[in-house]
Write a structure and sequence with these properties.
- The protein is of the alpha+beta class.
- 53% of the residues lie in helices and 14% in strands.
- It has a 5-stranded mixed beta sheet with strand order 6-8-9-11-10.
- A hairpin with a 4-residue loop joins β1 and β2.
- It is rod-shaped and about 160 Å long.
- The two termini are 49 Å apart.
- About 5% of the residues have low confidence.
Length: 478
Amino acid sequence: MKLKLFPKLFLAFLVTSAVLVLIMGLLVNWTFKQGLQDYLHNKELERLNELVPVLENLYLSYGGWAIFRQKPVLFRQAMNASLKHQPPPPPDHPLPSINDARPFHPPPHPPPRFASILAYLKIFDSDYQLVVGRDTALLKNNLHPLKQNGKIIGWLGLRPHRVIDDSLAQAFQAQQVQHYYLIALLALFISVLAAWLLLKQLLTPVRHITSGARALSDGNYQTRVKINSEDELGQLAADFNHLAHILERNEQARRQWIADISHELRTPLAVLRGEIEAMQDGVRDLNALNLKSLHGETLRLAQLVDDLYELSLSDLGALNYSREPVDLSELIRDSLQAFTPRFTAKSIQISHQLSDGLILLADSRRLTQLFSNLLENSLRYTRPNGRLEISLQRQENEIELGFEDSAPGVPETALGHLFERLYRVDQSRSRVFGGAGLGLSICRNIVNAHEGEISAKPSKLGGLCICIRLPLTQRIST
């Protein structure tokens, strides 16, 4: 069974928290135990100061340490007697033996505060030779000097012991262990609760985005998700909403595109059908003039289909581009020469300021198409007795090209839509002027393929200004 993201992350948090709590509990318990043992040992070291005068008196009473090295039990008897403020046993006191028939009475117990440390005492002579105690490592830093008349006669130390035999300390340690267990369980519970709340907080936006993506895949492009944070998940939600907005806009554009194409094709087809049916019914004569009208409508329909086909190719990037050095001034002059008779017939004056020697690595055929579309656009919409100004100059690492014509102008609100497919400005650029509103869209694709920029703004002559910027160092996009 495949686990979802929530149980996977929850188990990961749970296992991680449990391991951390276990490790911390073991470390804290070990640290506490070591600290308690060190504390008890240091407390016992402080008690050794009370034994120093007792041991110095024993040294004086027995004439040295030799007797204690030979008879360790005598040292314990003497210590017990001295701590009980009794006279120490004589040096020739017989040692207890399992073969001794006389009853043996153990010496009195030392005071309780010394009972736990007598077994761990270590006594060295002045040469650091062990007298009493086990032969363990010598730690000179923890030894107390024993003196007689200002002369060191030995050293007193305490062998470390790691078994806690104090009843109060043992009870305190057991109580702390219980507290550790309770704290560990509480920490684990808090970790589980925090992991659950955190995962719920993190995964709720993910669920919303997932459901939104499913809605988008079903075609519901109005879907939006709520943005409740400014972190990465909030940015992801914002990007999702932006994507949904783009898809919704593209869907609207697609529907509008289909409707516009249908309308553009329906108009010439309706004219053709009406004229043909009129000839069939005898309303209009089948003569050369009426056939010429039909031929004109057929040519306009063919031009519309060709423009749609070429625009679709440019949108798909399927137009062929070839790179070669092109003189832009010469290319513009050639395009103007082909349009001059038509501009003259409409009494539109053309002026240009073309900087020579501007060589660009570009596709001359596509640039000719670009210039032809712009000239056709100005010729179609500029009023008679108008004016067209063309400028070409270099600005640092790019070439600026401008086409400015006279009235009529374009409203400010329409400037941003001129390069959209099938877009027209109703007030001044309607279908009575011809065209299908595809020329500027094709121009934009050609400029983009040359890694340039094209824009529209009001002209100082009262009409429209088309501005084109082409980089001098470029690579043709294919």
